[in-house]
Amino acid sequence: MRPLTDEETKVMFEKLSKYIGENIKLLVDRPDGTYCFRLHHDRVYYISEKILKLATNISRGKLVSVGTCFGKFTKTQTFRLHITALDFLAPYAKYKVWVKPGAEQSFLYGNHIMKSGLGRITENTNKYQGIVVYSMADVPLGFGVAAKSTQECRKVDPMAIVALHQADVGEYIRNEDTLT
């Protein structure tokens, strides 16, 4: 487990800023202690410094994971967020989309959100902006990318895709053997 390089930190923070903007500072400097990001087997973990010090007693080969997996770096060094980061992204999300109850299951199976399933969308959401997807009961379901801006969503037909799926809580069941 090692600290992220400057390039890795830059790539990861650019990805996180698409979803939570300037609130990245709130992830690192928390009132309950200092947290940091560490890389282990191409995966980025979010961990408190107190637990990090305890984890140094375990050899790298035997350590499976520690903290919360935020995502992983692909072979091309792009950063992919995992659904395990949703609990930390949702409270700080700048742009949100709420889906109707009938469209929740479709989203949880990995499908994009259609205009007919859109309940609400945050004002001034830009096209290709990172969004957090909520149910109408304000339960975070996943995250994705806005395929249309807020103004475009008002004018499109009901079968148009308004949000592209990236990750959802259904992945805990579909990919339980690969999530760490």
TrEMBL record:
Protein name per Swiss-Prot or TrEMBL: 60S ribosome subunit biogenesis protein NIP7 homolog
Keywords: Nucleus, Ribosome biogenesis, RNA-binding
Subunit: Monomer. Interacts with pre-ribosome complex. May bind to RNA. Interacts with NOL8. Interacts with FTSJ3. Interacts with pre-ribosome complex.
Family stated for the protein in its record: Belongs to the NIP7 family.
Domain PUA, residue spans: 95-170
Compartment(s): Nucleus, Nucleolus
Record InterPro entries: NIP7_N, Nip7_N_euk, PUA, PUA-like_sf, PUA_sf, Ribosomal_synth_fac_NIP7, UPF0113_PUA
A single GO molecular function term of this UniProt record: RNA binding
Gene3D superfamilies, per database record: 3.10.450.220, PUA domain
One annotated Gene Ontology cellular component of this protein: nucleolus
Gene: nip7
SMART domains: PUA
Function: Required for proper 34S pre-rRNA processing and 60S ribosome subunit assembly.
Gene Ontology biological process terms from the UniProt entry: ribosome assembly
Lineage top rank: taxon: Eukaryota
